[in-house]
Description:
The active site is at 90 (proton acceptor). This is Aurora kinase. It is built from 6 helices and 7 strands; from the N terminus they run ααβββααββββαα. The chain is of the alpha+beta class. A hairpin with a 4-residue loop joins strand 1 (30-35) and strand 2.
Amino acid sequence: AQLSKAGVEHQLRREIEIQAHLRHPNILRLYGYFYDSTRIYLILEFAAKGELYKELQKCGQFDEKRSAKYIRSLAAALDYCHSKHVIHRDIKPENLLLDLRGELKIADFGWSVHAPHSRRTTLCGTLDYLPPEMIEGKPHNQMVDVWSLGILMYEFLVGSPPFE
């Protein structure tokens, strides 16, 4: 009932459906879910080292080797998502987690969409990472994730997003 009132039921259902079917070493695994009368509980892979955002804040910026490692992992995960016709649409440091070994995991598929044939028009994501076509309200496709990848590479190396 609370979810319906908040207008997020459809978005949460889509997030669960999409993430439950993705299997990649750099995507946070959704093992299952359950719910009671007031809440939905997601059973997720444990990312022991938490948000990449906090690591970036602590370090200020990453060196080229570390940045390349994260970008390579993220690019592989996005390539996999796009091969499954999934667009994440909210790639940012807060949605990237680190496991116990420091391996990157994409999380939070709340804005993601399965789009096998159509271009999307929904404005979503986080302003610092939005590509021009989304800001202009034009149709977009999986390339919005590639734009975010470039923004992240800059942010990893410099310590702040380029258009802040």
